[in-house]
Design a protein that fits this description.
One of its GO terms (molecular function) is ATP binding. Keywords: ATP-binding, Cell inner membrane, Cell membrane, Membrane, Nucleotide-binding, Translocase, Transport. The chain has 233 residues and is α/β, with parallel strands linked by helices. The protein has 2 domains: 1-72 and 148-232, 3-Layer(aba) Sandwich (Rossmann fold); 82-147. Helix content is 35%, strand content 25%. Strands 1, 2, 3, 4, 5, 6, 7, 8, 9, 10 and 11 form an 11-stranded mixed β-sheet that branches. The radius of gyration is 18 Å and the shape is globular. The model has no long low-confidence stretch (mean pLDDT 93). Bound molecules: adenosine-5'-triphosphate.
Length: 233
Amino acid sequence: MLKLERAVILSGPFTVEADFSVAEGARVAVMGPSGAGKSTLLEGIAGFRPLRQGRIAWRGADITALVPGKRPVAMLFQDGNLFAHLTIANNVGLGIRPDLRLDRAARARVDAALERVGLAGLGARRPAELSGGQQSRAALARVLVQDRPVLLLDEPFAALGPALKRAMLDLVADLCAEKGTTLLMVSHDPADARRLTPQTIVVDAGIAAPPQPTAELLANPPAMLQDYLGREI
Ligand SMILES: Nc1ncnc2c1ncn2[C@@H]1O[C@H](COP(=O)(O)OP(=O)(O)OP(=O)(O)O)[C@@H](O)[C@H]1O
């Protein structure tokens, strides 16, 4: 269980309040208007934003004071996931050791992760030599080698076309199912949310609500969510 206990996450003068639990292995969408605090919520869970009060616990252990690298959490960002000057293999290897001192076993893990995301044999290339979809796969491979039980996605596939985005999200869902990974994913797309995330956290004006069933929420969305999702519901 991932538990946020009366947590107040800080982003400059802005705060996000969260007081809820997410069951282990759950897949949860994070939805809400632009500027409501969705990224802040994920960054707080990942340890990139401090808490003013409250705590975050994973499997009963308090992780509030842990730096991001020590948390049971991996996060994919909107952009900037890959370093342009490093090969794809080294970009993935950063997930194992930030100093890139990778022994043979670690290199094998990198290769296995690249293969799992469909990039076998492309490890020697640099990001600019890959398509947008392949770059997303490489970023996902780095998350895979980290082998963390919680995965946070902050719209990492937003720049891809709809078919490619769908394929990437399906790959994420498969990987999560294989490992029992707990997934929190910012989404602007009701179809994605229905397909992949049975529960949804609504964030509005700095308040993150507890997860609720996605189908029920989208069948009868509050006005704020309707405005945000437009006619796509
Ligand atoms: N360092 C900062 N100083 C001031 N305000 C900030 C700072 N960082 C974030 N904010 C504000 O915090 C609020 C929440 O930002 P956040 O990125 O979490 O929203 P979001 O829901 O992810 O939005 P979007 O869907 O547009 O990405 C915004 O109103 C933003 O302007």
